[in-house]
Design brief:
Length: about 170
């Protein structure tokens, strides 16, 4: 692929709604979710917001299924609000992608990939949809990387640099 075509492919606008549905999907099909790396600057240092998962209480970044009528980045921003009460601005370009298995039960799992978008947090709501179901915590990039279970997500968090966002 020549340089011009590569650039066009990277900068092409994303569709408003991704053509991903669960109807008719097989149990072994990989599903797509959208995740938010919520960040803020505190004393010139980057801090990352983590939340606990509802069932296992592991530390994760807010993420969820595509939201009808919203772009992937808007879906990530929606999850940041619902799961963490984070209000801010989402960058429309993904900062990474990671894979994991969404646990559905004792012996059941669903293979997923999560496209990750940066959300610069401007304010934290006290009242938000999942406030009674999760804990939230601001930590350094290094600590965030150590707290999550997924190695690919840990690398994204460790290497996250808001100055490199386009």
């Amino acid at each position: 692929m020549n340089e011009q075509k590569r650039t066009e492919a990277v900068t092409a606008p994303l569709p408003k709604q991704m053509p991903m549905g669960l109807r008719g999907a097989r149990k072994t099909d990989v599903r797509t979710q959208f995740a938010a790396v919520c960040y803020r600057m505190k004393a010139s240092r980057v801090q990352i917001l983590l939340v606990t998962s509802r069932r296992t209480r592991r530390w994760i970044v807010p993420k969820g299924w595509p939201v009808r009528g919203k772009s992937p980045s808007e879906s990530a921003l929606h999850e940041a609000w619902e799961e963490a009460g984070a209000v801010g601005r989402v960058n429309p370009h993904p900062v990474g992608i990671y894979s994991y298995v969404k646990l559905l039960g004792k012996d059941a799992g669903l293979p997923c990939v999560a496209m990750v978008y940066a959300v610069k947090v401007k304010e934290m709501a006290k009242d938000y949809p999942e406030r009674t179901e999760r804990k939230r915590k601001w930590v350094s990039r290094k600590k965030a990387a150590a707290m999550v279970d997924e190695p690919e997500l840990a690398r994204i968090l460790r290497e996250f640099d808001p100055k490199a966002l386009r």
